[in-house]
Amino acid sequence: MRIERVEFFYLSMPVIENVGDGSQDAVLVRVEAGGQTGWGECEAAPLPTIAALVCPPSHSACRPVQESVVGAKLESPSDIANIHAAVRRNSLDLLQADHALSGIDMALWDLLGRARGEPVYKLLGDKRAYPKLPYASVLFGETPQETLAKAQGIRKEKYRAAKFGWGPFGKSTAQFDRDQIHAAREGLGSDGILLVDAGTVWEDNVERAAQVLEALNVVNATWLEEPFVSGALSAYKKLSALSGRVKLAGGEGCHNFHMAAQMIDYAGLGYVQIDAGRIGGISAARQAAEYARERGVTYVNHTFTSHLALSASLQAYAGFERDEICEYPVESKPLAQELTAGRIERRADGTISVPDSPGLGLVPDLKALQKYLVDVEIKVHGKTLYKTPPLKA
Amino acid sequence: MRIERVEFFYLSMPVIENVGDGSQDAVLVRVEAGGQTGWGECEAAPLPTIAALVCPPSHSACRPVQESVVGAKLESPSDIANIHAAVRRNSLDLLQADHALSGIDMALWDLLGRARGEPVYKLLGDKRAYPKLPYASVLFGETPQETLAKAQGIRKEKYRAAKFGWGPFGKSTAQFDRDQIHAAREGLGSDGILLVDAGTVWEDNVERAAQVLEALNVVNATWLEEPFVSGALSAYKKLSALSGRVKLAGGEGCHNFHMAAQMIDYAGLGYVQIDAGRIGGISAARQAAEYARERGVTYVNHTFTSHLALSASLQAYAGFERDEICEYPVESKPLAQELTAGRIERRADGTISVPDSPGLGLVPDLKALQKYLVDVEIKVHGKTLYKTPPLKA
Predict the structure, then answer these.
(1) pLDDT digits (tens, 9 = 90+) for B321-373
(2) Is residue B4's pLDDT more than 90?
(3) For residue range B108-149, what is the model confidence (pLDDT) as tens digits?
(4) Angle A307-315/A281-294 helices, nearest 10 degrees?
(5) Distance separating alpha carbons of residues B16 and B333, to the nearest angstrom
(6) Taking CB atoms and an 8 Å limit, are A45 and B376 in contact across chains?
(7) Hey, are the CB atoms on B93 and A47 less than 8 Å from each other?
(8) What domains can you pick out in chain B, each with its CATH number?
(9) Interface touch A96/B95, C-beta < 8 Å
(10) Is the pLDDT of residue A329 over 90?
(11) Rounded to the nearest 5 degrees, what angle is found at the Cα of A295, between the Cα atoms of A289 and A296?
């Protein structure tokens, strides 16, 4: 079969709050080939991502993403690899193309899985999907008191692991950060796995980041995530030498495999966190997971949005028994919650698994999503390059 | 003064050819503050870059670029640093933002230089601008015979250095590549500096790249540029160990300072090539130039478009006497040639210098550019977020 159509849908909450919550909008991707449909999701700014799909070409290495996808053959995993390589090559200088490719790549795997009646992880060569231990991923409270209450709530929901991040963390005094860290541990109880996410707030300032290390060690936190921006390799490396039992985590900003490899090779990470919606989809996430495994770095998904994105993120390392922990969004906005009718629910023992059904195993709830669909129109030289397509089956 | 307005203009040749010539379109940037105007240029896909400027926000770290710029104070270089940092922070997850920032950053330096009556390199702290030795930057011919003729033409034009790149190079046999390399040297003569640009064609395939090393050494080439994509650090490092007298060059794909630092630290480069129109403007280019100097790696601009972009690229290292070589576009399309009325011309000894006048020292030729202006309209929820502004003084 050949790819007949690639469509991007901009979905958004009616109001976007100025907080670190990436579940407030979405780029949903639909690919059609041979009577089959595949779905994916870019973790990306919707308007520039749509523009990357449909823009006029600039030169031979700066071409619209759709050009490398529509009409391409799709019958096997190697066809997906060819499409992936074509986008990277033909859109090399179109920065936003990596984010656009991410949702398309997911949809290609979903479509192929449906056509073959197999879950994506099996197409990737894994015989079985191991259970993952989800951590509840939430924002820090505005005060340590709020964080305490959030942590208590998470404990009540019987999560065995929780991550607190963003919000006011890292933006005022180190003492405030330490209070936040202690509040999170107090609320979670001594047995819960505690993870802390600085959300790149210190950019590459090792000295400032080091001021929270003792508190993290005292409360027995498992990791400190993104003290610095992705790619600030020497800052990561320096901090990792000081971090004691607490390991560093990072990598969500990687938008291709090579960036993930650098983080694994040079940043002194204990955990590499990959967002399949940014790195180039399941193909690039899988490549990063294999690279991490060979080098003894634990692979973790980065997912703060829908369960469609969650399934895609999990497929890449579902078959890796030792990479057990996974991110699990619990505070997401109604848009992200309603994006799929089905969900990846926790079992009684607190673990989750990818759906054991074809493709990604979840489909968008088109009826529920109508109210979130954003009407976009892009005209160049008077010609309409993009108009929001109808979101119908 | 405060920034009153930031405008992006999409300029394009009437027909875009599917060749590796990045001078076929442009994103021209105008910034206005306190009665002054500054100009810059993004080396980027125009439509996604415009979308990055004006898109609706997604969350606190994925906001439109203009939000961090319009209204900001602009009275000193530290104000530019603040604006730069705000864009990086507030648009962290908007991938295309780095390319959008690049042209804005140039325009901020241009504007500040004009307001103070000083060239940008002086605002950067350099007392004088040293002459640079430009290399003629051209595409390989389709055949070795064509390349020979091109090289002979360059020699006739009295360039002391030339770079051949892209086109068919690296896409068929290693023998074809070797023939191309020998043809370039033959046409250029034995005394010219010969540079070869593989345009990332081997992605990260060290074995294939190694097949041209002997020929490069035999013809006494100075560098092999971009055998691999930016960020494929271990592939670069491995090849650098095999490359003999020929040094590796790369880095044009870097879209922030940290990526340039990685290439300098881990890729085994002899030359780091930075495009101010991609890395985040003059501010980030300068940071990379200083980092390279401290580590004994030669800094070179990457510029394949207009003389406005050329001036901006040169300002970052104009004061660095030892980084002598510079890229100089010679085959650019009429759009790029007409973009400025003034030009940076070669002197009788073959060298060039940045203009010794305020700001970037060159201004767009608005009259000539009218015919290249592309009409763009972007509507979201029925509201016009972008409509090509008039390109008038």
Answers:
(1) 999 999 998 889 999 999 999 999 999 999 999 999 999 999 999 999 999 99
(2) yes
(3) 999 999 999 999 999 999 999 999 999 998 999 999 999 999
(4) 40
(5) 10
(6) no
(7) no
(8) 3-119+365-387 (3.30.390.10), 123-338 (3.20.20.120)
(9) yes
(10) no
(11) 85
Backbone angles phi, psi at B76, to 5 degrees: -155, 165
The Cα–Cα gap between B151 and B167 comes to 15
Q: pLDDT digit string (tens) for A123-158?
A: 999 999 999 999 998 999 999 999 999 999 999 999
pTM above 0.95, yes or no: yes
Q: Taken in order B213, B216, B221, B226, is the CA torsion positive or negative?
A: negative
Quote ipTM for the complex: 0.96
Q: Which of A49, A265, A278, A380 to mutate to test the interface with B (most CBs of B within 10 A)?
A: A380
DSSP three-state, residue A258: helix
- On chain B, the residues whose CB falls within 8 A of the CB of A231 are 256, 258-259, 262
Does B353 lie at the interface with A, CB-CB under 8 angstroms?
A: no
Q: Tokens 């002086």 correspond to what residue?
A: B122
Fill in the amino acid letter for B373.
Answer: L
- Look up residue B225 and give its two tokens: 């540029």
Chain A CB within 8 Å of residue B99 CB: yes
Neighbours of B175 (CB within 10 A): 11
DSSP reduced 3-state for B138: strand
* Region at B13 (left for phi over 0; alpha for psi -120 to 50; beta for the rest): beta
Please report the pLDDT score of residue B339 as a whole number.
98
Treating both helix axes as pointing N-terminal to C-terminal, what angle do A257-266 and B257-266 enclose, rounded to 10 degrees?
60
Strands of A271-274's sheet, edge to edge? A298-301, A271-274, A247-250, A223-225, A193-197, A161-165, A133-139, A325-329
Query: Distance between CA atoms of A289 and A297, rounded to whole angstroms?
Result: 9
How far is it, in rounded angstroms, from Cα B187 to Cα B182?
9
Label residue B121 left, alpha or beta by phi (over 0 means left) and psi (-120 to 50 means alpha): alpha
User: Which chain B residues in 127-146 lie under 8 Å from chain A, judged by CB atoms?
Assistant: none
DSSP B147-207: HHHHHHHHHHTT-SEEEEESTTTTSS-HHHHHHHHHHHHHHH-TTSEEEEE-TTTTTT-HH
Residue in A closest to B266 by C-alpha? A266
Instruction: Give residue B393's pLDDT.
Output: 78
Nearest-CA residue of chain A relative to B17?
A: A59
Q: Do A48 and B44 touch (CB under 8 A)?
A: no
Contacts of the segment A211-216: beta carbons below 8 A, 24+ positions apart: A211/A174, A211/A177, A212/A170, A212/A174, A212/A177, A212/A178, A212/A181, A213/A239, A213/A242, A213/A243, A213/A244, A213/A246, A215/A177, A215/A178, A215/A181, A215/A182, A216/A181, A216/A243, A216/A246
Classify residue A240 as exposed, middle or buried by CB count within 10 Å of its CB (0-12, 13-18, 19+): middle
Reference B249, options B139, B344, B343, B323; nearest CA is B323
Helix B77-90 vs helix B281-294: crossing angle, to nearest 10: 100
- The CB-side HSE value for B363 (13 A sphere, CA atoms) comes to 17
